[in-house]
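In the design runs reported in the main text, the only information available to the sequence generator was the tokenized backbone. The following block is the verbatim input for one such run; it is reproduced so that readers can re-run the procedure and compare outputs position by position.
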């Protein structure tokens, strides 16, 4: 778990520093928000809190976690899709609101394929097949 957590933190930190240098020389000059479309204590919430704890000192700004729960992750994901594209609002999500919900719901308030951009893969699920 520790190695995986360090990989997530390193990936986000590298991205944030690289993007900041390319986009705005003084980024960030205010707090950064990570929206989690699931409840406190969920896997995405834990990942966001691990990332924010290590990323804030590197950025020199607070990284605020905002849990926006509802509609299978659509509420928080939709809020980020509609947020200003200024580099201060991110979503820590799963396949649900980004892939599955596009076929499970007749209409979403956002289009994950055009209104959101992937930044970093922050985790994965490892399964082990065993044979008798």
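Verbatim output:
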């Amino acid at each position: 778990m520790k190695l995986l957590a360090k990989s997530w933190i390193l990936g986000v930190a590298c991205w944030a520093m690289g993007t900041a240098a390319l986009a705005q020389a003084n980024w960030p000059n205010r707090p950064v928000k990570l929206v989690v479309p699931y409840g406190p204590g969920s896997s995405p919430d834990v990942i966001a809190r691990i990332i924010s704890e290590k990323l804030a000192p590197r950025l020199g700004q607070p990284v605020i976690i905002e849990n926006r729960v509802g509609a299978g992750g659509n509420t928080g994901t939709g809020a980020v899709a509609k947020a200003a594209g200024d580099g201060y609002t991110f979503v820590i999500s799963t396949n649900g609101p980004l892939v599955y919900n596009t076929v499970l719901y007749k209409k979403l308030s956002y289009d994950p394929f055009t209104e959101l951009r992937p930044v970093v893969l922050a985790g994965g699920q490892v399964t082990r097949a065993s044979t008798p």
